[in-house]
Amino acid sequence: MGDGVRSPDAKSTLRVCALYPDLMNIYADRGNLLVLERRCAWRGIGFELSSCGLGEHFDAGAHDLFYLGGGQDRDQRLCAEDLIETKSAALHAAAARGAVVLGVCGGFQLLGHNYALGNEQIEGVGLLDVATVRGHGPRLIGNIAIELSPGASAGEEREGRVLAGFENHGGRTTLGERQEPLGRVLRGHGNDGCSGYEGARRGNTIGTYLHGPLLPKNAWFADWLVALALGVPEGELEPLDDGIEREAHLSALRAARV
Amino acid sequence: MGGALGVKLAIARGVGVLSRLGGRGATSAPGKVLIGLDSHAIETLAGRLPRGSALISATNGKTTTAAMAAAIFEQAGITLVHNDAGANMAGGVASALLGAARARKGIAGELGLFEVDELWLDLLATQLHPRAILLANLFRDQLDRYGELEAIGERWAQVRGRERLVLNADDPLVADLGRERSSALYYGVEDDSLALPGMAHAADAKHCRRCGAPYVFDAIYLGHLGRYHCPRCGQRRPAPAITATQIRLEGVRAVRFTLHTADGEGEVALALPGLYNVYNALAAAALANALGVSLQHTLAGLQRAEAAFGRAESVTVSAGEASGEEGAPRRELRILLVKNPSGANEVLRTLVLEPGKHDLLGVLNDNIADGRDVSWIWDADFELLAGRIRRVTCSGTRAPELAMRLKYAGVEPEQIRVQADLRRALWQAVGDRNGSHAPLYALPTYTAMLSLRELLVKRGEAHAWS
Fold first, then answer.
1. Which chain B residue is nearest to residue A244, measuring alpha carbons?
2. With an 8 Å Cβ cutoff, is B373 touching chain A?
3. Domain A11-235: which topology?
4. CA A62, CA A99: separation in Å to the nearest integer?
5. Model confidence at B328, in pLDDT bands (50, 70, 90)?
6. Three-class SS of residue B75?
7. Residue B109: pLDDT above 80?
8. Smallest Cα–Cα separation from B398: which of B373, B415, B361?
9. Burial of A258: CB neighbours in 10 Å, binned 0-12, 13-18, 19+
10. Cross-chain residue pair A216–B366, CB shorter than 8 Å
C-alpha cells in the first residue's frame, strides 16, 4: 500500500495511528480519538486504532490519520528525540502520500522545525514551516475561537467555519513566510498572542493549540478530517443526528464569547 | 504588638460580620483582610497553639481527610482550630485562626488542623511551622491553574522545615519526597483483591522521579497509586507503617477494612464509600499516629467520621418546586463531588457498585475554582455508566459538553436531558422517579456543589455550613 492509492474497499475503514498515546495525552487527547471512532462506527465505517510509542516504528502506508497530542515537558522531550530517530522519515512519507497528520498543542510544536526553551532547543520533524520559542511572558491560557482560513484548498466549503477550544501554552509559535495558518483568532491568544494567527496547515498536515479536546467541541471538523483521511468528499459521509454535538459546539463558542 | 494585633483582629472580624450579612458565607474574606493589615498574622496566631499545627495537602481528598482527622483528634480530647469548610488558601487559614483568637494572646484550640491548597503549601508551611505535613496524592487537575503535576511535586520538595512528613507510599511522586527524611511516616493499601487490571487512562506519574525510566507496577489500586518499582535505578515503594487490608466495598454507602499500625490492628467501618475513602482514612490515621494519638482513639474517630461538605452528603428533597409542598414526593439526593479525572473515576467506580440503573444529575461548571478548561471530562471514565443510566440531567455552565461526553461514553441520547439552569434541572431530576425509591445521584463540580447546596439550604433541605 505504499503507492498512496487505496482500493475502494479500503475506504470503508479509517486507520488511525496514535503517536505516544501514553505520554502525549495531557489535555484529554483521548477525546479526539473517541470522537473519530464513534462517528465512524455510527456510519458503519470501520475504525482501526493502533498506537506507536517510544522506540517503535510504523509503516507509512498503513495509516490514514496520525494523531499527536500534548505532554508534560519531560515527556515531550523524550518524544521529540524519539520522533526524529524512529518516526520522522515514515511520517514525512505518510504525509506526502496524503495521510492526515494532526498535532495538538505539544504535538503541533513537534510538527514544526524546532522549539527553543532558553538555551535548549528541541528539534521537530519539520512537516510544518513553524518555529516555537518559550516566551518570557505568561502562559497563554483560555477559551479560544478561530475562523478557518479561506482557500486553504480549492473546492472546500470551509470558509468562515469556526473552531472552538481551550488553549494553554507557554510556547510562542511563528509561521514561516509561506506557511498558512489554520485560522484567524476571533477570541483568545492564538500562536503567539499577537499575530492573530492560530495553528498551521500544509496539505493534510494540521497543527493547532486548540484542545478542550478539539474534536468533541467541533464534531463537524472531525467529519471533515475523516473525509480527508479516507479521500472521499465530505458530503458523502452519512449525516448523523448531531443535536447534542451542535449544542456542545455552541457551548464552547459561548465560553469563548463568540 | 499584642495590642496592635488586637485592633487588627477586631477590624477583620467586622469584615466577617459584614460579609455574612451580605448573604454569602465567604469564609476567607476576614482572613484576607487580616493578612492585609498584618502580614505576620498567621505566624503570630499559629504560634499561640500549644500543640502546634498539622497540614494536609493533596489533589484529592483534602477536606474529607481533614474531617476524618478532626474526628480522631476530638476522640483524643484535643481541641482544634480547623478550616473545615474547605477554604484552603492563606485567607481561609487566617480566617480559622482569627475565629479562634482570644484576648491576652489566647487562642481557643490546642492544635491547628489545616487543609492547604497544593500551590499554597510552601508559603503556608513557612508561616505555620507545622509539626507534621500529610501529603496524600498528586493527580492531574486543573492544568490551567496548577500546571503540570511534576512541577507541584518540585514545589513540595522545597518544603524543608523540621516537620514530620506523613506520605502516601502508593503514590510514587509523593513517596519520593521522603527520600532524605528518615522520620517520614508512610501509609499504603495492601490488598491485591482490589488491584485493577490496568492503569486508568488519566494516570500520571508513570515515570521514575529520580531517573525518568517508566515504573513497573506490580499492582494498581487507583489511578497511578499502587505497588511499583523502577527497573533502572531500583527505587521502589517504601514499606508503609500504616496499612489497610481486607477491604470490603459496600456500594455508595460504606466501606470496611482492617487498619494496621505499629500499635496493633483494628476493624474500621466507614460510613463513607469507596477505596478513595480508605485512602483518606489511612491518611488521617497516619497523621494521628505521627502526632501520638492512640490506635483506640483513631478507630473510634474513624467510626464516627461523616461526609464532609458536599462529599457523599445525603439530603432528602421534595419533588415540588418549593420544599414541603403538599403531597410532593420526597426523594434521597446523594451529592458526590467530581472535580478531576481521578476523583471522578473513583466516584463512578463506586457508583456502579450499586445494582440497577441510576438517575443522575451531572453539573459541569467552568468557574475559576472548577478550572476554566473542561477537557478533563474526556479523561474521566464515564464509559462505566454505559448501560447503567435510567435518566441523566446535565446542568451547569457547560451542560451541553457534559451531555456530549456522556453520549460518546455510550449513554443513549434519549436518556440525556440538558437543562443549564440548575434550579430547574434539580426540580426535573428529582421528579424522575422510577418508583423504586432509588436515590438521585448528583455529580457536581466544586462551584456547582456550592450552588446546589445553596439551593437546598434555601429550600430548607440541607443545613448551612458555618
1. B404
2. yes
3. Rossmann fold (3.40.50)
4. 10
5. low
6. helix
7. yes
8. B373
9. middle
10. no
Query: Tell me, what's the ipTM?
Result: 0.94
The distance between the two most distant Cα atoms of chain B, rounded to a whole number of Å, is 69
Residue (of A99, A18, A20) closest to A55 by Cα position: A20
User: Which residues sit opposite B225 in a β-bridge?
Assistant: B222
* Domain boundaries for CATH 3.40.1190.10 within chain B: 2-303
More confident residue, B209 or B53: B53
Average pLDDT in chain B: 90
Task: Report how far residue A148's alpha carbon sits from residue A199's, in angstroms, rounded to the nearest whole number.
Answer: 10
- Where do the structural domains in chain A lie, given as residue ranges? 11-235
Enumerate residues 6+ apart whose C-beta is below 8 A from A71. Answer: A20, A23, A24, A25, A26, A79, A106
In chain B, CATH 3.90.190.20 sits at 311-458
Nearest alpha carbon to residue A115 among A72, A174, A166, A69: A174
Collect all residues of chain A within an 8 Å Cβ-Cβ radius of residue B140: 26
Least confident of A55-69, B255-269, B334-348, B399-413: B334-348
Is the Cβ of B399 closer than 8 Å to some Cβ of chain A?
A: yes
- Contact between B319 and B430 under an 8 Å Cβ cutoff? The reply is yes
Contacts of B418 in chain A (CB under 8 A): 244, 247
Kindly report whether the global pTM for this prediction surpasses the value 0.90: no
Residue B408 at interface with chain A, using a CB cutoff of 8 Å: yes
Residue among B303, B353, B363, B304 nearest B333 (CA): B363
3-state secondary structure of B145: helix
Give Rg (Cα) of chain B: 22
Superfamily of domain B2-303: Mur-like, catalytic domain (3.40.1190.10)
Summarised one tens digit per residue, pLDDT across range B266-301 is: 999 999 999 999 999 999 999 999 999 999 999 999
What does pLDDT average to in each consecutive run of 10 residues of chain A (258 residues)? 45 92 89 97 96 95 96 88 96 97 97 94 96 91 92 48 95 96 97 97 97 95 96 92 96 95
A251 to B201: CB separation less than 8 angstroms, yes or no? no
Residue A4 C-alpha cell reads as 498512496
Nearest 10 degrees: CA dihedral of A164, A168, A174, A175?
-30
Chain centroid to CA A149: how far? Answer: 15
State the catalytic residues of A: 105, 211
Tell me which residue in A72, A216, A244 faces B416 most closely, judged by beta carbons.
A244
CB contact under 8 Å between A244 and B201, yes or no, is no
If pLDDT is split at 50, 70 and 90, which confidence band does B61 have? very high
Residues in chain A: 258
The rounded distance, in Å, linking the Cα atoms of A26 and B202 is: 8
The answer to whether the CB atoms of A28 and B398 lie below 8 A apart is no
User: Which of A38, A241, A244 lies nearest to residue B400, judging by beta carbons?
Assistant: A244
Cell of B323: 420544599
SS3 at position B128:
helix
Domain B311-458 has CATH 3.90.190.20: yes
Counting every residue written for chain B, the total comes to 466
